[in-house]
């Protein structure tokens, strides 16, 4: 999950520099356990999102004082299986309770399970997955199991695994290889343990960030012969897939889950509308009323941020490079400016462009005392934080995720999360949003697995609109929302099937 | 122009009943002037939008007491030309003033004219047009002239022509054939006079509603050999084109201007956000605060209506058939209901679905006293107005565009514009929106006319994103809005051209 | 009614210049009918609000081509009475229908009538009234009748009388003296006919603007011996009363209805929130989205205007003199500026200060082309319109209530309603607001008439909070709103009576 | 500080039960240190607000592992004084830094200090204070010192003292008697140490909650002979004062700071608009979009909560007992219901009435699974939490301040802060709001101390409007807000002094 990053303000299709590293250059050996220092040296080969810091509502369970590496432990679950590697299998019970609570808030997946009692649309599917390992992911994984699939799973981020949840999954028979605080070497080792198995070969990939896909491409390219498709959730991973496709190297169909309507609008617009306020409050306790704010980028994330701050009584300025988004900002009541025009007067600067160096040292030099700077966009490139690491500036950590950067004249800038994603670092992602994403992933797997020969070629696809609509419909009961049905006469008049899809593909919502 | 109708809530691709009338069935002779009664009998053959009532800010100039038909008059402009047919050429001066005022509010077209001083991108173009004839259209037409084109023009609606503007265009040398209050026979006669000319053959079509295109298809199919393309603005006309394309009968490229981003968002979302309030106030003087309203359909128009009414303190319910739009309504804070659930309690019912019989007689029977019913969607099909024409109900016209329909027990329903489009009938369309549309049309003409062989096939296209972005950029100065430019480094990072396009085609804005 | 003017942004207690004219100076004789020119000369002695132009929804009934002055006509109603003077008694039937429609929208007064079937709280009351004569006033008057009062009535504005309604009242036996288009002489003559009657002397006054009160003070001061109290609705009239009180000249209790909570919040905040949009749209058809607007004054009216325009996507600046209101503007998300700072860039200037010369010629000189200037505040003093009447500027009336003022360099300013109240001139007042005002007036009359000796002295009072609450409660059914009742235990805990009043007097709502 | 509680929805004038305890009944001796158990027994005599839990942004300083009671320690500051009692004088440096940061955000007090360089308006003042002891209070205290006053200070809440700040004040020479975690006995002992001093007698009281005032009344009534006035900030304390006044027992003038405009609007409306979102997010990570919420009480706090949740896409219902507030809710777009009507369907219940037992066990029984219940109103009486302490219900603490109460059938209610104030328990109060309050307190002290004989009698007063305006004006620079000044001509026209006050006393803002 890379919530809130992406094609805000500009395109989803930028080329991160690491992409230019050739796959072939990477030579790692996984049988030798490197020393602690040695592990660090591998850090170039891991995707940035895999090491982003990540806060979680459930972080209170973090009592991992046990220093032994899970790779060195011998653990068995109660059924005698040892085909997993987690921090501590004994934490399973606590993890199970977390999963049960999450189940209550993910009615769509539970509804899928119910329907699966009759048919098993994933019978025969062998899914290898690489995602954040949280209670919500566990609900997804166990749903895939209920739908008939076999799963093996690794973490897509070295910090984000909830150990108790991993333990509960392992206890329930899922081969899970993940723990909080993996080294980069551990990271790849875990992925390898998922795919490199005697007598088992995956036929589906569920990826988040593209590292798993990358690994198979590099180490086990022959596996793709049996793989029916890839489901990818992150901006970064989707980008990698489009690059492969463009280069003619994509050898199976792939489903771009990131750009499905429900995910885009919910993950970005609606979720960020709330998390910008939450992130700012938790870190700074500031009052929004009357504050002057500049939001860089008026994509979905920017729209969400602007709407929320305007509603709280802030005066919001917007910067944009795209004239269409710019005109939308105007019509929504925001002055469209260049950053330079307002940088001296604003109280808060928020980036959500997906671009790099949107806030430069020059901008930072000109900000007024106590100006807050944070990033809601992609990765950690938008604010040129590196430019602040100079001798004349003093850094003072005043709270978790909050640094004061102090100029020689005493001016302080309040930098949040060191320029990383504010909503991931200083806020939490609502289960409801995770539910939409997980349901979309499940349906994408079902679609690719069951698609008749020829429906999908070796290309990147968006989820068929009808399935997008289905994901949405599974979430309506949460709001006690009642959908109207077309009469036969109306369906005929509109030239539509009564069950959808209801819109042409280019419809913008 | 069919502002605000269309693919709200459901698809743009319904099949209106008139489409089932075969082109070949229509046999009309235009040399014989029918009697007044005779003209009526032709009404089946004209598109519905051509006869929609239409209110205009400039209707105060309507002093047409002259009863002679323009077709029977001999008129010459000051240069001696008589190649036009308007109500009264002497009204030219007044019309010119209207055009000059409109020019002030259409800076984008004026900017195009300026750029045309160097090059003439439409040199050699012979455009036949069929649109509403208003001051704003005149600015478009004269801009096309400045860009090098020859134009001939008819009206796309029998009521909407501003006679003074038509006179001013004729005086300025434009062969215009249009007046307010044409009969249906006049309507086709005018179109025919535009295309059926000695020594002049059109090579471009600008249509609004599809009637002109239809006429050429039916009467002069050979003309298409020289025609480079069709630019069509209306939902109805675009629909006709897609039907032709599906049937393999489209013989030139066509540009679907209706679904360009700028038009959709501005014409529908932003414009309707304002016109719903305007239309309701002008007709009923009601207060919005505290009123319960149900909005049927949560497409762009529905979104605009809901946002405006919520902001004014109304309590808004939404009905939807599409689960994605339904979920958006939930997240935007509207209860999603079936119409039946709230029909007894609401003060206002607004339709914007593009569907038919959304409000039935049964609903109307259950509404409470003084409930207001109106339509912001497509055409006049959404409310089953015909069902109210029964003997037990009394109709009372209380104001222009406002009827009280009275039940035997005294209950009154307030029906606006007899179920036709409220925003066209009881409000006005801001020049700014018309400017966006007109600029888009001009650029679509330029694109089709100058496109290299093979870029466009015999199909229906959306405006290239770059031109959509260009239209937007031409309107930013109106808001004193300052666009940010990418640095070289940023453009490279994003993999974008610094001048756009800035988004993938599927971007939803 | 002087809806929307008043203590916006500044104090209610300005001293209009006419107040400096001594009452004793005015010597008019009413038996001699002056010539048309002669009538004009009296115009100094009439309050400004009496001659403000006034638009009404019902103005379409204005077919008064009869040139004979009502004062010269002999008319009788169907019961033979001729104790009235209206335009044409034969219009009674049409007027009655208007009254019946208004009754449907004034449920509070109708509820009072029902309760009056048992007791007649105004039995014995002889009320002389001077208000706008509209269908809504008629509902008030007939309610007062049903409550037991005798009434005689004149118009408080020479333009605002609906002749048909006046006829209907006269036909129903009410001695009404009013018609549309009275001369100033007529105005005072009508008032005189109300009070100067053989064998009838008023014991209550209901005034709107203070002209009636003024007249009695001047001509029949002895009448006050029998008068139990004055109910005054307008800012101007209330101001006169406070002046009298301060000067020790107020000889009966007076009720300031203008400053009751319900009137202030509804007439000003909620009503202006809607009427600013309505007034601007009807006059200019402008689009609000993206427009830069400066609102002068952040009282209730300014708050309403700002909220509405912000919601429609305008960028709003505020000017204020009062630091508390200024701080509210900040917290509500508006930049607080001096007019000079933004005058060059704004598209619209709206005054609602109650002050004079807020917009000066110097400001007007600096506005950009097409800037719209209008007034939502008090009277017509806020914009220095007189300063625009200079030879170098050209005035062009482009529509009713819309003037273009053109500078020598071609710059045009769009001046609405010549600087008079936009919401009265170019919009309508919702019946709901009128209902609140009328109910408040009725209750104030009941309170003053029935108050035990000594409860009210010769001073100006606000309506007792309990009655304010009662007015509100009578309007809740309109919204199907369900009030919660205190339990005995809760009432005891709060130290409140279960029936109210619920707030201390200084509560601000 | 009792931020956000009070006269929401209903009256400020409830009678808390403890008020019925007679002052005379309380016989405590403070020279004998009671045992730990003994201390508990005194708890009846302390005001509820003194023991409310209280969270603070600065709680990270809470390293109080030292078990020795401060009362048993011998401490001296660096100047040798031991006239204070704090946790640990050595923490002074850290506390000083906190104070310096707070100074940056309290420009109004700093401005007062600057003006005090010329004159010392509090020269000779001997102020005894009893408030929360935080960095912001320290800025106030040191400002009072700069203005010429001598101060002695105790804490008004046994949990809220920041020990480091107390230490810094003591180090700076302020006799402060306060620490975090006082027993009730400590509480009164500290107060006593402030007033019961050899050779020093207070002539001004600054109180928050009324406990200090109460103590002096009870123990040292003679002190009032020299006391010039009381400044009281809390709802509870103000209520006590009005009771005393009513009973004829108030023997000095008192200033009701709680009901000043700036405090009311900022502390309640604007602050709660933000803190409701913050409090809910920090405790539950819920998503607001689409949630159904009922807000009990539509006073300032309720208005703030409703506006915020509506803006975030929640569907909000309101309950009210006061018809005027009810009508406001309607006009603001909220359905007014009785709690019973919606209790089964809502996702969140928020109380802000100031009343007791607004949410009863019966309501709680009918709520749906996962319903969140919290209190933004007064004290902890609004939700009948006691009724949930029954054997059949299971309580599960899932996070700090979050309990799940589980019904036998598995239904869970999410109870926040055990029904205490959400915004105090689970959120923080912005410095900006504290700045407004502190400035108001300082000005109230100055006013009472300097008022000429006879201006204030033995009664409770609101701050003079001019000073309220002055407080506001001192905070405008924070927003770079520019106030407009009246011209002489305008001031004359309005009958106002150019420097204010600008509004009549009854103005509602």
Automatic annotation (TrEMBL), chains A, B, C, D:
Record flagged with keyword Nucleotide-binding:
no
Annotated segments matching region Disordered: 24-82
Query: What does the record's cofactor remark say about binding?
Result: Binds 1 NAD(+) per subunit.
Q: Name one GO cellular component term.
A: cytosol
CDD domains from the UniProt entry: SAHH
**Any idea which UniProt keywords this protein has?**
Hydrolase, NAD, One-carbon metabolism
Required co-factor(s) are:
NAD(+)
Catalytically driven reaction(s): S-adenosyl-L-homocysteine + H2O = L-homocysteine + adenosine
- Would I find rRNA processing among this entry's keywords? no
Q: Which GO terms describe its molecular function?
A: adenosylhomocysteinase activity
Which pathway is recorded for this entry? Amino-acid biosynthesis; L-homocysteine biosynthesis; L-homocysteine from S-adenosyl-L-homocysteine: step 1/1
Annotated Basic residues bias = 33-42
Where does the chain bind substrate?
Answer: 134, 208, 233, 263, 267
Please tell me where NAD(+) binds in this chain.
Answer: 299-304, 320, 423
Group of enzyme by EC? hydrolase
Q: Where is the composition biased (Low complexity)?
A: 43-62
> Alphabetically, which GO biological process terms does the record hold?
one-carbon metabolic process; S-adenosylmethionine cycle
Family membership: Belongs to the adenosylhomocysteinase family.
Under PANTHER family, the record lists:
ADENOSYLHOMOCYSTEINASE (PTHR23420), ADENOSYLHOMOCYSTEINASE 3 (PTHR23420:SF2)
The protein's name is: Adenosylhomocysteinase
